[in-house]
């Protein structure tokens, strides 16, 4: 069993926002690549290791845990259960 680590709500929020933003980018870029008839290579072990090292620097509260991850597992966000809503047209917002 893992060790309990207490992090601030701000850190949890930052990590959740980053995950959500990166997942959204992943879907947008994946759709664009499919539409263009091309594909991207999956990040290799070294690229994923570099990103987890950066997380430890950006979020000192989780640096110890991040330092124990030598090669992060490959992660692909799960398919969305529903299609995201269309963007909001600012001109249709109440004033």
Q: TL;DR?
A:
The chain has helices spanning 9-36, 45-58, 63-67. The chain is an all-alpha fold and 95 residues long. The longest helix is centred in the N-terminal third of the chain and has 28 residues, at 9-36.
Helix-strand blueprint:
Blueprint (H helix, E strand, L loop, with lengths): L8 H28 L8 H14 L4 H5 L28
Keywords:
49% helix; 95 residues; mainly alpha; flat
Report on the structure:
The chain is mostly helical and 95 residues long. It contains 3 helices and no strands. The longest helix has 28 residues. It is flat and about 45 Å long. The protein starts with 8 loop residues before the first helix and ends in a 28-residue tail after the last helix. The model has no long low-confidence stretch (mean pLDDT 81).
Number of strands: 0
Query: Uncertain regions: pLDDT < 50 for 5+ in a row?
Result: none
Tally of separate helices: 3
* Residues in β-strands, percent: under 5%
Distance between the termini: 53 Å
